Amino acid sequence: MSKHLQKPPGVPLREEDFEAQRVLSVMYRPKMRYSWATGVAIGRFLKGLRAGKIIGTQCAHCRRIVVPPRVFCEWCFRPVNDWVDLPDTGIINTFSVSYISTDTTKLKTPIIPAVIEIDGTTHAGFLHVIGEAKPETLKIGTRVKAVWAESTKRRGSITDIRYFKPAEWKP
Amino acid sequence: MTTEPIRVEGDFPVYFRYTVGVAGEKFFREIMENGRLMASRCSSCNLNYLPPRIYCERCMSRLEEYVPVENEGTVEAFTITHQDAEGNPLQEPVGVALVRFPGAYGGLVHRTIDVLAIGDRVRAVFKDKKERTGSILDIKFFEKIS
Amino acid sequence: MQIKKRVAVVGAGMTKFMRRAQETGKELAFEAVRQALDSCNMRIEDIQSVALGSAPDAFDGVHMKGEYLLDGAGAWGKPYSRSFVGGGTGVFSLIHGWWHVASGLFDTCLVVAEEKMSSCLPHPQTAFLTIFDNMIERPLGPNLIWIFALEMQRYMQTYKIPKEQIAQVAVKNKRNALDHPSAQIAQKVTLQDVLNSEVMAYPVQRLDISPVSDGACAIVLASEDVARKITDSPVWIDGVGWNLDTTYWTNRDLYFPRYVANAARMAYAMAGVRNPRKEIDFAEPYDPFDYKELHHMEGLLLCRKGEAPKLTAEGVTERDGNLPVCPSGGLLGVGNPIAAAGLMKICELFWQLRGEAGKRQIPGDPRTAVAQAWGDLMQIGTVVVMRG
């Protein structure tokens, strides 16, 4: 090996080096906020959730149904115009039991994030959480049903579905 | 008729701590302790980098020689700003100058208290030593040398 | 595709990988470049173009990081460009530089990858928040680890893989890293240490995960005729490939990285590798999590689907095994300054194929190797095949 690589450069610091001001540093806290346009498809989806409905789209060419809806099909690369009302039931594609929150703080009561595939859709799972369930009873393929927020509390958000709970199989 | 939720509000909740780096430690400590500007020197390219770097951008050799730079320089460019970073009007307009220093490659952008013209001679005015923290703000502003 | 020039790696350099570096991003880049140039006795004047790789600006907290890093990367007054495909950037930056030379446009190219994640507070992971969809995912309060936990669970349940077999990867890579002078978290840990470590989001535990890191790497590329003047032992880039799956991560088959397989097939075809299981002597797949090394071995077609955990448990992927995997120590042991971590894998191929890897050297004179990284929204595979 090249002699240069025996002692690679770099000065590692510890958090205490900053606290004791052994090294100089500059803090910067950006004050940015954002306002994102939902766009056509997600706007309609969120409006549907407020009304207690799960709305998807179907590609007229490949017949694939997806939710949340999209205005074009990425497989066929064609516009999509067919809106479909979907059931609020499906299966768990995969799940986890999370002991950390968004900002990595620890949770005493874990969250159960999952990828949910709504009945009738193809390769179109989406992220949500599972409730009213013991983690050890869940598995891939477990059937679930949406638990909705009360209609007066729904505001056109993915959280208008509070969570999905395990459900009986109803053909 | 649009009752659709068309916008989602959000933020990006991160903040940053930048180390001043190896060359930055020399530069800011010299300002803090001695009220003096310091450049790093590339003798093969005959360039004195201000602010200093640990390398010469021309020949990529490692720079380990530091040389003092006078606190007096020349205005390369000048503006007066009437708005803050968020576009709000300022009560007092702020002068901002790009200052070059004799024998140094680079320069500093900083506040001024005078209305300046390109070519004016200016001098760095430092805070009292006990108030300095090793920051570019240890220089209060540049003032015109009459 | 017409490749005008065969391209060789002739020099490599890297900094230490550290949780917090005193050096600025520019200074880290310079240190790696200086090492790389010195390793092949080249001057910056000999470099005709510079290809930079760096991941999200929000880690360093510097917008337009490419421009910011320019001088430290040795790109003053040169044709210079930055590529960015998330975690896949490190290996992609080599492909980016390869293109400059393979096309005949330049005879030499310096490839630089840098990341300074420690600038980002309260935790660099927070910068990942906006990779989630702002409308349908972020309101649920997701954490980046969720994605990996969900993928790992899907992989484990599909092939009925015991967690012990996955944890073995963390044990191996952290131990391999003990022989790497740049390593950040090289250590001897036992299987039980990994299995008993804090559960973050089941099945992901603390020791399944690579660390947050600062660091930089650099590689010098040259066309064949120029390379032979620089060194007697150039290492050839014989195949490159990259491929992306859908940006809807929840729509993918999480148990198998099809995009890695597509990228690998592209690279193997270019390199004339017909049977990767026999022809690849060792591999550096991307291992930010222990299960990802296994996932990627399968994506790289180095074994059957679901077979990588068993091979690992049997010791096949140890340095003295039949198919050494991550002899460097990988991201799990050396560290994970995102873009630099990918280019570190290219450095390892270079040193191993030249027999210069010191205590890490794989026995038996390895001739052909593959490196791979993974990123964007967990959907890109970037693959390079190199020969000594």
Would you write up a description of this structure?
The complex is a heterotrimer of chains A (171), B (146) and C (388). Chain A is mainly beta and 171 residues long. Chain A has one domain. Chain A is 10% helix and 39% strand. Chain A contains 2 helices and 13 strands; from the N terminus they run αββαβββββββββββ. Chain A has helices spanning 15-19, 39-50, and strands spanning 25-28, 33-37, 54-58, 65-66, 72-73, 78-79, 82-86, 89-95, 97-100, 106-118, 126-130, 143-148, 161-166. In chain A, the strands form 3 sheets. In chain A, strands 8, 9, 10, 11, 12 and 13 form a 6-stranded antiparallel sheet that branches. In chain A, strand 5 and strand 6 (78-79) form a beta hairpin. The mean pLDDT of chain A is 93. Chain B is mainly beta and 146 residues long. Chain B has one domain: Nucleic acid-binding proteins (OB fold (Dihydrolipoamide Acetyltransferase, E2P)). The longest helix of chain B is centred in the N-terminal third of the chain and has 14 residues, at 21-34. Chain B is globular. Chain C has one domain (7-121, 211-387): 3-Layer(aba) Sandwich (Peroxisomal Thiolase, Chain A, domain 1), CATH 3.40.47. Chain C is of the alpha/beta class. In chain C, the strands form 2 sheets. Chain C has a 9-stranded mixed sheet with strand order 3-2-4-8-1-9-12-11-10. A two-stranded antiparallel sheet of chain C has the order 6-7. Chains in contact: A-B, A-C, B-C. The interface between A and C is large, with 56 and 64 residues. Strand 1 (25-28) of chain A pairs antiparallel with strand 2 (15-19) of chain B.
Q: Segments of chain C where pLDDT lies below 50 for 5+ residues?
A: none
Total number of beta strands of chain A: 13
**Coarse structural class of chain A:** mainly beta
List SSEs of chain C in N-to-C order: EHEHHEHEEHHHEEEHEHHEHHHHEE
Q: How far apart lie the N and C ends of chain C?
A: 23 Å
The CATH first-level class of chain C comes to Alpha Beta
Largest interface in this structure = A-C, 56 and 64 residues
Helical fraction of chain A equals under 10%
Quaternary state reads: heterotrimer
Strand content of chain C is 15-25%
Largest sheet features of chain C: 9 strands, mixed
CATH topology of chain C: Peroxisomal Thiolase, Chain A, domain 1
Main sheet of chain A, how many strands, which sense, barrel?
6 strands, antiparallel
* Element string of chain A (H = helix, E = strand): HEEHEEEEEEEEEEE
What is the helix tally of chain C? 14
> What's the shape of chain A?
extended
What is the average of the pLDDT values of chain C? Answer: 96
Low-confidence stretches of chain A: none
The end-to-end span of chain A amounts to 66 Å
According to DSSP, the number of beta strands of chain C is 12
Shape of chain C: globular
